[in-house]
Amino acid sequence: MERYARRSLRAAGLIGAMIVISKIESIQSQINSIQFNQLPSLPASELSC
User: Fold this and answer.
1) Ranges assigned E (strand) in 1-49
2) In which domain of life is the source organism classified (predicted)?
3) d(CA 35, CA 30)
4) What is the pLDDT, as a whole number, of residue 26?
5) What is each CA distance from 11 to 15, 19, 20, 31, 33, in whole angstroms?
């Protein structure tokens, strides 16, 4: 019984870590898009290399 509890705790910890990582990645992508929008606007000809 104790072994099963430890295993489920470990699985819950892994799931929690995956959720935290996915939230951090979504926040980072939001920050990147905000920074990209704040860049000085260049003509489209300069952007398309």
Assistant:
1) none
2) Bacteria
3) 9
4) 95
5) 6, 12, 14, 30, 33
Q: Cα 29 from chain centroid?
A: 7
Spatial neighbors of 39 by CB under 8 A, at least 6 apart, are: none
Q: pTM of whole model > 0.85? A: no
Cα dihedral: 41, 45, 48, 49 (round 10): -120
- Give the number of other Cβ atoms within 10 Å of residue 26's Cβ: 10
Dihedrals phi, psi of 39, to nearest 5 degrees: -65, 150
Place of tokens 């000085």: 40
CA distance 25 to 2: 35
